[in-house]
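User: Let's play a game. I give you a shape written as tokens, and you guess the letters that built it. Ready? Here's round one.
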């Protein structure tokens, strides 16, 4: 019996994986409205129509104050541990949860592709040491910072746009990257930019090394996955 199960197990595994991929392709096609078009237009539409349908934050439920409890607790400690004095927050979204933090920094730069969002952030939260800039993280020059935070962004990007962003971040000569990853996910799926799925940066096609630190955000059950922030030295990330 045991040897029969051992013999059949790989076939069952491959069958399940095949079915998962078929299901993904069909369901993803239903969201083909995200195919083509400019990134800027897609996210401007998400913003203006509040397509993530959250009453508290136009950046979606993941940017609620309550849902960022762990991140808000851990980020100041991490900044102090690595001795960061400058933070590049790409993308900053509406700064909804970040506004609750009083970080010990000389410079904070928030970048987003939606102009209205950036203007509102500058008006409401901008000061001498805190600036918001409209840029596209896949291609526009980025300032150098000790720490780059890229939270809940690449989950909305196609593989190609993620790779463009990584190359662009590397060009900024910044030191550390803290970004969203799901270490338990066993396979990454490609999407049209604008849609959403989870990603694991340590498996193909990204193959990031072991992170220096992982912060599990302990997000609510409805999202039921291990949404985490992984910390890497940017120089340790190699892309081909
Ligand atoms: C889900 S929100 C996350 C915001 C923020 N990181 C947070 O944790 O609240 C994603 C944000 O990415 C921005 N965005 C999408 N593509 C971008 C790009 N290519 N360059 C800069 N910002 C982008 C969107 O406008 C949106 O505000």
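Assistant: Ready! My guess for every position:
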């Amino acid at each position: 019996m045991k040897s029969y199960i051992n013999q059949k197990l790989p076939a069952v595994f491959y069958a399940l994986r095949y079915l998962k991929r078929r299901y993904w392709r069909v369901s993803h096609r239903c969201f083909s409205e995200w195919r083509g078009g400019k990134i800027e237009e897609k996210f401007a539409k998400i913003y203006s129509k509040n397509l993530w349908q959250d009453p508290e934050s136009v950046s979606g439920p993941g940017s609620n104050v309550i849902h960022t409890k762990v991140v808000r607790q851990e980020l100041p400690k991490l900044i102090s541990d690595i001795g960061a004095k400058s933070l590049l927050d790409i993308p900053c979204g509406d700064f909804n949860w970040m506004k609750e933090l009083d970080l010990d920094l000389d410079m904070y730069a928030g970048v987003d592709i939606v102009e209205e969002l950036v203007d509102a952030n500058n008006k409401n939260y901008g000061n001498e040491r805190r600036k918001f800039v409209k840029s596209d993280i896949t291609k526009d020059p980025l300032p150098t910072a000790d720490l780059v935070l890229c939270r809940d962004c690449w989950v909305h990007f196609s593989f190609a746009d993620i790779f463009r962003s990584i190359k662009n971040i590397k060009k900024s000569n910044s030191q550390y990257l803290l970004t969203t990853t799901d270490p338990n996910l066993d396979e990454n799926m490609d999407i049209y930019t604008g849609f959403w799925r989870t990603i694991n940066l340590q498996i193909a096609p990204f193959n990031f090394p072991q992170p220096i630190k992982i912060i599990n955000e302990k997000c609510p059950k409805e999202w039921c996955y291990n949404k985490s922030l992984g910390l890497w030295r940017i120089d340790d990330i190699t892309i081909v």
